Amino acid sequence: MAGRYADVARVLKGEVGYREGFSGGHWNNKQKYSASVPGLAWSDYQAWCCTFTSWAFQTAGLPKGSYPVTASCATATNWWKKAGRWSEFPAVGAQVMFGPGGGSHTGIVIGYDDTTITTIEGNTNTSGSAEGDGVYRKVRQRRDAYVYGYGYPDYPGGITSADPTWKNPSIEEDPMAGMTKKDIYDAVWRTDAIAGPGDAADHKTNPTWQPQSILKDLQARVRSTDKRVAAMSAAITALAGQVGKGADTAKIVAAVTAAIESAVIDVNINTPES
Fold this sequence. Notes:
32% of the residues lie in helices and 16% in strands. It has 6 helices and 10 strands, in the order H-E-E-H-H-E-E-E-E-E-E-H-E-E-H-H.
């Protein structure tokens, strides 16, 4: 019962007991499903077994294109075959097609064993007559000539099938499935497990860092280095400009050293003291 079959089963079981309209002494095929399936509103008052299966798959949230949307059993059968999702073996959650060429009636399989299939079908009854009146749970013989075959919806995770040749797609779970951007941020940036550098400004109050703290410290160190480089460049430029002009080189060297150490540009060789 992989993927969304559980949702399909819930939807189907919730409809068992539903009855179509009754007028003039007969059941009249007036029902709620046609109006709820885009493109099938016209099929109200018509035979609605296939409309019911389309509605059930849609209501359970199966992706569009993973099942036929039609009021015609023959059209549904051809759709399954063309899609390469057809089998002569039952599967849990499969659409079972009945009658010659699969064009007479349909339902959805909710279980099977070696000899029977259990289905939920719309536009049927308990008497076996051709005049269906509602949604019923039924048990049928697997090898009954009336059973034509089965269409397999493209359930995420595959389908439980009696077909020995059917191979479900290999599905790998996405480890990121369901994670939000905030979940990822928290996982990456809010893990307290990294010892901060001993010379960091806030090491005494925050000795064990989150990764974002390291970035903050690195940014501060880069800015400090940039200032020191700028101070060195300015001081060296000033020194070079005074070479050979009688400047007090010892004082300039001291100024350059002080500028490098403090990262403050304060070299003025034009003062009287120079």
